[in-house]
Amino acid sequence: MPRDPSPAPLTERERLARLRLIRTENVGPMTFRQLIDRFGTAVDAIDALPDLARQGGRRRPLAVPGRAAAEREVADNARAGARLIVFGDAAYPASLAAIEDAPAALSVIGHGALLSERALAVVGARNASMNGRRLAGTLARGIGDGGYVVASGLARGIDGAAHEGALESGTVAVVAGGIDVIYPPEHADLFARIAEAGVVIAEQPIGTTPQARHFPSRNRIIAGLSLGTLVVEAAARSGSLITARRALDQGREVFAVPGSPLDPRCAGTNGLIKEGAAFLVESAHDVLRVLDGLPQRYLAEPPAPEWTGPSDREVLDGTGETRRAAIDERSRRLVLEALGPEAVPVDELIRGCQLSAPIVASVLLEAELAGIVDRHPGNQVSRRMDAPA
After folding, report:
1. What is the per-residue pLDDT across 329-370, written as a single tens digit (0 to 9) for each?
2. Which candidate in 118, 186, 286, 352 could, as Cys together with 281 as Cys, close a disulfide (CB 3.0–4.6 Å)?
């Protein structure tokens, strides 16, 4: 009989360990993925964290939540009517898993099965015009009737109108704070209706009040859940354009509704079209024609592993010469001295330092855990100039 290619379900111990790992100091989504790729399990990664951070130059211990803290977070979600899914769970959406900085844990309220459906993001200005809101609702309704779930951010303006238009066919609201914090407050009724008929998800821990820094993170989830992003009214510099740019970075499609050149709320959408970065949209049919033409295998392939250094097994087998080289002080000095506050591609760093990819990967991972290096989308890194010792 053919072997089942699907991975084995995560044990409860591993699920809690993955939650603990992403809540650990200096561990973000990309570092989380590197650690899982390297060690295979979060349980083993957590055991390795103290040595890795120390090798990276950290003198103080990393703050790693205990199992009891993870269990409390699970229980807090349950009391709020939510459940937690972690990266690697069968319920984790494949389209989101395909992005390099996929969230390691998500709080979910509502019909989680919608997260696995083919989706389109619809986003736009918070201070949208009446016509813009009406058009967003009409487009979302047509896209829903065409068989697609509509994802958006529960914000005022275009987001709210898109959710309303797709409520009957299926909609996903991605919130910037904790799953129990409704923002904006006037969308409390809409939140409740989406939780009943659609699904609401959050990356931030329960109880988190949304801050400005959380919204770009939320935007990359909206784009990551979707085959494409449709922008209806967006200023030249806006969160909606961040969502569109992230969609482009993720290899997804981008659509935009043109508007009056006299309206600053249309400068961003017109710019996307003018740059050739977006399909011009006048009706839902314009979107469906592109989405329906995408191959069925689109987004189905798993992402390539992030970790490019030697595995923990290579070290144990005695074949980890590159691992030992990675903690060589000269290698570390070359890499860290080459970094500054502006992000640079890791490939460029490898070429500039004239070191192997495994050595640079090891140095960067240890430096991230030590709080010296930050990782950015697009496989880029920068150095924290005020890094704590």
Report:
1. 888 999 999 999 999 999 999 999 999 898 999 999 999 999
2. 286
CATH number corresponding to 111-292: 3.40.50.450
Give me the CATH topology for the region 312-383. Arc Repressor Mutant, subunit A (1.10.10)
Other beta carbons less than 10 A from residue 343's beta carbon: 17
Do 312-383 and 111-292 have the same topology in CATH? no
Using one digit for the tens of pLDDT, what is the confidence trace for 35-61? 999 999 999 999 999 999 999 989 899
Distance CA 368, CA 332 (A): 12
Residues 382, 373 contacting (CB under 8 angstroms): yes
Nearest-angstrom CA–CA distance, 216 and 210: 11
**For residue 65, is the peptide bond before it cis, meaning its omega torsion is within 30 degrees of 0?**
no
Structural domain spans, the chain:
12-80, 111-292, 312-383
Q: Please answer whether residues 159 and 240 qualify as being in contact, where contact means their C-beta atoms are separated by less than 8 angstroms.
A: no
pTM for this prediction: 0.89
Task: Report whether 215 contacts 186 (CB < 8 A).
Answer: no
